[in-house]
Design brief:
By secondary structure, this protein is mainly beta. It has one helix at 18-29, and strands at residues 3-7, 44-45, 49-50, 56-63, 69-76, 85-92, 97-103, 106-111, 117-128, 135-146. The strands form 2 sheets. Strands 3-1-5-8-7 form a 5-stranded antiparallel beta sheet. Strands 2-4-10-9-6 form a 5-stranded mixed beta sheet, with no helix packed on it. The longest helix has 12 residues, at 18-29.
Length: 147
């Protein structure tokens, strides 16, 4: 049976541009499976979460204003490694920030420059458990708290 879920690094800092942020997030993603990066612990926190088979998965991230907060999710199994995520798409954009995707397992969020408060966005994730039942889909509903 595959374990499916997500984890985000606890990272902080300001990014000069979204392009450099994507590269930084990609560099951090290499080590996420074993240990998250700890740049400024507390500036960006996303607890572990698991995909809900019922079709909706809820998670919360909290981040300091001005920080780019990376978010990753994966599936681990003895037969598939990290290959179980087939696709992911942002289906509801936040009202007070900018999400971005680097690949099917790696996203990031940055709040608008002067925004402090709550925001939310949704990502549709299609994955395969290698369980003989075909592809599955969950809607990751991410609540965001910017302080």
């Amino acid at each position: 049976m595959a374990e499916r879920g997500g984890r985000a690094s606890e990272a902080g800092g300001n990014a000069a541009s979204w392009g450099s942020t994507a590269l930084a997030v990609a560099a951090v993603a290499v080590g996420l499976m074993c240990s998250p990066a700890h740049a400024d612990k507390g500036d960006c926190v996303v607890p572990h979460f698991k995909f809900n088979a019922a079709g909706e998965t809820w998670a919360t991230m909290s981040l300091r204003r001005g920080v780019v907060c990376p978010l990753s999710f994966w599936m681990a199994s003895s037969t598939k490694g990290l290959a179980g995520i087939i696709s992911s798409t942002i289906v509801v954009r936040p009202k007070n920030g900018m999400p971005g995707g680097h690949d099917v397992r790696l996203y990031a969020y940055k709040a608008d420059e002067n925004f402090v408060g709550n925001d939310e966005f949704e990502i549709s994730i299609r994955y395969n458990l290698d369980d003989g039942e075909g592809d599955h889909e969950t809607l990751l509903k991410m609540n965001v708290s910017v302080y």
